Amino acid sequence: MIESRTQREHTEDQTLAPCACRTAQTRGRTHRESRHSRRTDFQRDRDRIVNSKCFRRLEYKTQVFVNGTQDHYRTRLTHTIEMTSVARTLARALRVNEDLTAAISLAHDIGHSPFGHSGERALDERMAGHGGFDHNLQSLRWVERLEEDYPEFDGLNLTWEVRAGLRKHVSRDPGAELDGFPVGPWQFVEAQIADVADDIAYQAHDAQDGLEAGLITLDQLRTLDLWTLAEERVRRQYPDCPADRLASTAIRMLFTLQIEDVLQRAEEQLSALNPQTPWNVMSAPDRAVHFSLPFLDMLKPYRKFLFEEMYFHPDVTAAGDEAVRLMTRLFDHYLLHPEHMGAKARKRLDTFGLHRTVCDYVAGCTDRYALEECAKYRLV
Ligand code: MG
User: Fold this and answer.
1) CB 3.0 to 4.6 Å from 98: which of 91, 167, 286, 342, for a disulfide?
2) Ligand 1 geometric centre to CA of 79 (Å)
3) From the CA of 76, how far away is ligand 1's center (Å)?
């Protein structure tokens, strides 16, 4: 028998933990819409995100390595898919709303500019005195205002819960609200899961890309407790693991170790708190979903290593510095020649003003398009 939306909502109500967000109890959409006969509101949100242009552009945006430099490096899109898989695993294990978790996860990076954090730095500098630039806030801008594909509203008209979940760093402001409802001090479980899944994914897969790029070595990683633990587990489970498959197997083990730790701590936190509503989790003394303290002690030197040896490796920073130069020139070019931006962006000039419109346009570029535009206007 084909399942209706109301049957799905009933199943959610029966099977999810009391602290989970239920679609039947959503705080709704800014623009009122009729409900779908089959899909819940969170399922619809997830599908709207996957079908959006800003999501498709993630394919050509930098995660760490400039897009197109090697076929196996992660892009923003593959990072997003990997972290969404982690998030869905956590959501299912903790019996919270998997569709909501997936929707927040899939949208979490759509506000990223081209060329990763270097591109973000360049835009933020250019926007000094004009409100700055932050990729988390930009994700919200895309889904609330900038996508223009629906006849009745701007943006994707997502539910309150997905938009609240995207306010990653903003929500910790005391008294922060969205549409009159508090979004902190902590987030609800589904949003906390997306947050930690992002860390879990990049902490594992960036090391793999770094090894493949030759920026870091296995010998260096073996000086770190977290990596040693992962390798020990691999050797115990696969005593005959071929040497050339050890690193990739240890990377997968890194995912597992992190997920196990987060789940165990979350179970302890949630059993002690015994939350009966999402709000009980949001107003709790500590966040529900995070790494345990002993695990964080192992993670700290590992993260420090990734920052110092990989993200600040001269090859990566040189590419980043070049990206900053290009982004700055492109931004200044559009300030002087707004007529060179696309038609949809030009229409936004009256509403948002010159600087914000240029910022939105440059932030929306993929690495590939930004490079093409720089070549076209001889900015390289
Ligand atoms: Mg991310």
Assistant:
1) 91
2) 7
3) 7
